Amino acid sequence: MTKDPKYESPPCQGSVLILDHFEFNICDRTWNRARLDLLETLLYQERSRMVIVSTIDPSYFLGEEASKILSDGRDVDESARLFDRWMRALGKFTRVTLGHSGRDEFFGEVGQTAERGSRYAQFAAWVCHECGSTSLLRKLGIAILHEFGANPPATRGQLTEIVLDRANAYYRVLWSGLTASERLVLYQLALDGWANPKNASAIQQLERKQLVCKAPMYRVINDSFCRFVLSAEHSGEILDWEQHEQESTWHAFRFVLIAVLIGGGVWLLYTQAQLLQIGTGTITAIATLLTAIAGLSTRFKRPSLEAQAGASSQGGE
Questions:
Q1: Looking at the whole model, is its pTM more than 0.90?
Q2: What domain range includes position 258?
Q3: Which of 27, 92, 118, 260 has its CA 20 to 30 A from that of 175?
Q4: Under 8 Å between Cβ of 82 and 70
């Protein structure tokens, strides 16, 4: 791969050098190596004063996806070394969130539409819900208010379809800049309105990106993005998540069950004097139970393996 000349050290003619679109192609490890080399050169050799402009938090994204986007996996320690270099470089910067552009204009248009009557007020409320969260959606909302001002959509579902159609490319860009943990949180919220509290860092990142909000429980920003998250094109990722969740749940359940059985057996052996005479038999029974429980894991996995084998044979035919 030829190194992009844009990632060569640029001349810093002003007092501050701005690195815009810093997240571009951030899933490519070759680009990330060049990006890191450039950043270190500007920081440590040229002592440049810089501003990094990015739509994602590089520290979080690189930390979540380090094993995939920093190295090729041949050297198990390489990702850790590169991530450490990244954190040292990014630690020189202070994170600042830009203001919400276009809010006043958007809500002014919404208010003017609502003043035209009850029918228009309902339309304005739908647009406010669908398009009020991000700058690009607010621009889209203003355009929709103008275009359909004379003949608003009859239902909220129709408006959702309009927004989804026009914001589809934008949603794809948003999705491509999310980590696997962030995508899983969005899927859980879109599906049943619940997200695993263990993914607190991912939820925090999504709040910063204004893709989820708390009102009072966490929810996805709007109905159209919910539909995008649950669309068929993400079915492969969703199946992987569901399988992982099922396996994690079973492993946790098995651990708890084994611990309870062992604890119960020990309690019986040491508190019931009459059972001391048959202690060997009790231990044997517990061991038998543990063996049976361990065997359940294989039984749980067997249907999915058989399904995969059937799919493979059908593909071969």
A1: no
A2: 234-309
A3: 92
A4: yes
